[in-house]
Input
Amino acid sequence: MENTKWEIDPIHSAVHFKIKHLEIVTLTGTFNEIQGTVEAEENFENAEFSFSANVDSIDTNDQKRDAHLKSADFFDAEKFPKITFNSTKFKRTGDAIFELVGKFTIKGVTKPTILKIKYLGTNTDPWGNTKAGLQLKGKINRKDFGLVWNAAIETGGFLVGEEVKIKANIELFKK
Output
């Protein structure tokens, strides 16, 4: 059976992240420029995923914080302009639930990562294009990727948490 090739529709897709701030609130950010491909059998069995996010497109609703995140203290966007993920294994774990194993590369550091995927279905838009929806969830430790900047706070603890929760809503279009 020949695989189907899909591409991320960046206008109808979003990658968000959440991280603790001051140990009391969770801040949310988005990467506004993403791209990627999926090659899979019709039912998404044996899929191969490849995604990237443009670090310079980070948006946390605060330009000053965004500039700091792009600096060498965090992502160092000038030297490392992309965050990438490439799958190594994809397996069904439920009716429309999959486990995606792959490698995240952030700031030049590559680490194995597991993401959970929920397949949301396939449909045809009014112009005859076949689309598929996926929801991805996962988490990483930012320090594993060299994102170690932090500041101690007066009450103990640190300004920025280590665990980063990732959530992506992806709309694919069939090539």
